[in-house]
Every structure is written in structure tokens, then in C-alpha cells.
Amino acid sequence: MTQIDDRTEDDAQTPRLRFAPSPTGFLHIGAFRTALFSWLYARHSGGKFILRIEDTDLARTVEGAVEDFNDGLAWLGMDVDEGPVIGGPYGPYTQVQRKALYQQYAHQLIESGHAYHCYCTPERLDEMRKEQIANKLPPRYDRHCRYLTPEQRAEIESKGTSWVVRFAMPLEGETVVPDRLHGDMVFKNSDLDDTVILKTNGLAPYHLAHLVDDHLMKITHVIRGEEWISSAPRHVQIYQALGWKTPLFYHVPNVLGKDKKKLSKRRNAPSWSDYKKQGYLPEAVFNFLALLGWAYDDKTEIFERDELIRVFTLDKIGISAGIYDADKLLWMNGVYIRKLPLAELVERTIPYMERPEAEGGLPEAVARPLDRAYTTRVLELEHERLKTLGEAAEIVSFFFEKEIDYDLSILIQKKMDAEGTRSALERTRDALNTLPNWEHEAMETLLRELVITLGIKNGQLFGAIRTAVSGRTATPPLFQMMEVLGREVSMRRIDQAIAKLS
Ligand code: GLU
């Protein structure tokens, strides 16, 4: 069959790609990865990125899902050229509002003999399915209504019986799905089901709705998950029956977990908002997602956004699945945190630190808002080590707390006892009291000398001081930390440690 293309030359040259989520749930990050491929290519090629809400499955619609898609796109910086909020020349961009269009094309397919009314009741279909399963046959509509005569139809319809529209798939031959990643995929028509293309409520299921929209919205490249491959021959048949040219198909492998199993929200796949809550930077997540199933070469991992747009081409999408590696993301996030100028790090971390303790913020006893100048000095010490913005509160809380609490056992270092630790801390206090300026280099010189005088090891003295002033065993560099804590707090905490040991 010859295909008619009513797109103009000009249209055909402007890539138009879409993200078409169904609000039947909140998306995990793998779905945003697939959308990102479309976005990146649209930006790379000077094309358009379109958001379309595929909400014809009313019974499964989840409240808040559409807002979540919008917020997720915005968080990741994937701006939309046309969509439900922003509008555009091919709207509406929400499928329930396009109901009449699907009815029009379903009707056209009936007229051209490619589709028919099916009156089978759910009970009959259920019976049929059970029987097929019992006979080890693939469950499929038995085409009962396909062969009704016009008289039989008139008779049934005169009773007001409700119907759906089914597409009459060819019974013989083959359908070729041209796929840009997998090459031509050939399917036997005898395996194709007579798909429902219009439901009793007048809404079209995905199989008709998406392709009517892709055609009318002049979508040039359909990038979607490979779970749609098995439906694609049916779509190709419908395209042909309508006399439309298919867009370029890219069925991309799903993102898999490290266990090689498909990501699922319930098992192992976070949503964009989980990342946000944990303090991942959207620019790091963006970079990470782009590399889930796409690679520029086999070594480059860090791509700033503009760089990615520049180098992103569809031929580099892999046909083996991207593996979701949470450790790699954590590493990458650290890389992006280190790239931030200190002032920006502070600006972006403070909201995480100021949120309620129960959500991962600083202890409630710490007064908000935080002092910016002090917080800047604190975060400067952690800048190199921070892996997420969300972990900052826990790591630096001792800089902000009035009282710190810790176990005596971490104060007393290896091969030291309580008595020795106490006297070493007393000597530390006395030495620090002689310092005119509370400055880390002077402290270091002084306390290194004290180590020699006491005849113990650096780690023994510095470990005890570290715990005394922070209540921790792992902290930023000791002397810089003490400088930021200030003389008063440091000395008070050393005194408290001495008291603890007495
Ligand atoms: N609404 C479909 C989904 O949620 C879109 C698939 C496609 O991209 O065509 O998976």
C-alpha cells in the first residue's frame, strides 16, 4: 500500500518529538530518561519538544500525576515548546479533550472497511479468554463480530446494545515495523489481534489515540520504551489504513536495575522528587539520565547540559539496556557539587538544612534562619566531601548545636586510657589559652609541639580533640574546623570532655 504523507517539506524537516505520559501513576526516573532523549534531540536539532497527556484511561487516572510530570520536567530543566499549559498550534495537548478527533478517525476506518462495531459483552469475552487459556491458545479476540452481516448489526443495534470499535487486522501476510534502532522488524499478521480502537465511553485507547495525535501533531520521531514493540505492527496497520506515513520509530531499551531486572517504582526506581528530597542536583541527574542507554564514547561521563545538547545524536542510543547504578549517580552528584561556586552551594544547601529535622534538616533546637556567613564557613570545609545537599545537615550539625553528645569510648583513642586522655586535653586547653589569635595554622604548630612534649602520637592527641570539639570521629580538617567553631565553643567543649573523663 502506498503511503500518503500530508506533511509539508518544511514540516518534515523540523524534528518534532514528544513526551506522552499517561497519568496512571507517578513516573520513575527511567521514564524521564526516555523523555530526555526526545528533549535532547529536539534541542540538538533545533526541533520542538511537545508534552502530551495521554489520559484516556479514566479509571486508572491518578490525581496529582500531571502536576508531577510538569514539576519533574521543570526540575530537570526540560522545557516544553508545546503542551497543555503552554498551548501550541496543534492543541489541545490533553487526550480527553481530543475525543471527537478519535471518533472521527474511528468512523473513517469503519467507512473504509478497516474497522467494525463489536458488541461482545465483557462476560462473553471473559468466557472466550478462559477457554483459550484452557486450550493453551493465546488469548485473543475471536473476531465474532467481524463477520456479522449488515442485517445482523442492524438487529443488534436496534436493541440499543452498546459497542466498541475494533480494527480488522489483516489475517495473512506480514507487517514490517521500521525501527531506527533495531532495523526492520517483521511480524506475522496472523498473530495480530483485532485491537479495540474506540471504547463504549467514546474514548480511544492508546493504540488509536496516540497515533492520531502523533500524526496531527506532526511528530517526526517517536522515542518510546521497547515494551511497545509488540503493539507496533498493529499501529503500522492502522497508519496504513488511514493512509498516513509512520513517524521514525526508536524503541529504546528499558533502564534496568543492577540486578538486570526492569526498574519499577515499587522495587528499585526512585522518582525525580525522591532525588530532589535527597539533595541531588538536577544537573547531575540530567547528566546521569542521559547516559542510561546512550553514550558519546566509552569513556566520557561528565557532560554539562550545553555540551550534551551539542553532541547528542540518536544513532548513539544503544540497543542494550542502560543499567541504573545508584553509586555512579552519587559519585556524579559529588562531581557537580564540587563544581558549584561556594556561594551557590550555600544558597542551594541552606533550604535542606533549614527543613524540619524529621525531613532531614538540622535538629529542631537549632534556630532558623541560619546565619549565612557562618554557614558559608562551615560548608566551605565540607565542599570537597559532600555527595548530596541532603546529607549536609547531618554532617555539619555539630557546628550548629549548643550541646553535643557522644560516647566516651570515641574520646579515648587507641592505646590511651581515660586518665591519659584527660591530662592530654588539659594540656591542650592550657596551650590553646596562650594563643593570641584563634587561627588554624597557629593552633596546628602549637599542638604538634604538644604531641612531641607528651610523647604520644598525632592521632592520639588529635583524635581526642576532634571528638571533644565535634562529638565525631570523622570531620573536616581539625584545625580549620576549630577555627570555624570559634574559640569559645571549642574551649567549652574541651572543658566538657575533661569533665566527662574525671
Ligand atoms: N502513554 C504512553 C505511556 O505512558 C506513551 C507511550 C509512547 O510514548 O507512545 O507509556
TL;DR?
The chain has helices at residues 9-13, 29-45, 65-76, 99-111, 122-134, 150-158, 206-216, 232-242, 272-278, 282-290, 305-311, 326-339, 342-354, 372-382, 392-400, 408-411, 418-433, 440-454, 458-470, 478-485, 487-501; strands at residues 16-19, 48-51, 115-118, 164-167, 174-179, 183-188, 196-198, 221-225, 248-252.
Fraction of residues in helices? Answer: 40-55%
- The H/E string reads HEHEHHEHHEEEEHEHEHHHHHHHHHHHHH
> Which stretches are low in confidence, meaning pLDDT under 50 for 5 or more residues running?
1-11
CA(first)-CA(last) distance: 94 Å
Associated small molecules: glutamic acid
Number of strands: 9
Overall mean pLDDT score? 95
Structural class: mainly alpha
Biggest β-sheet: count, sense, barrel?
3 strands, antiparallel
Shape: elongated
Beta content comes to 5-15%
Count of alpha and pi helical runs? 21
Q: Rounded to an integer, what's the Rg over CA atoms?
A: 32 Å
> Strand order of the main beta sheet, please?
3-4-7
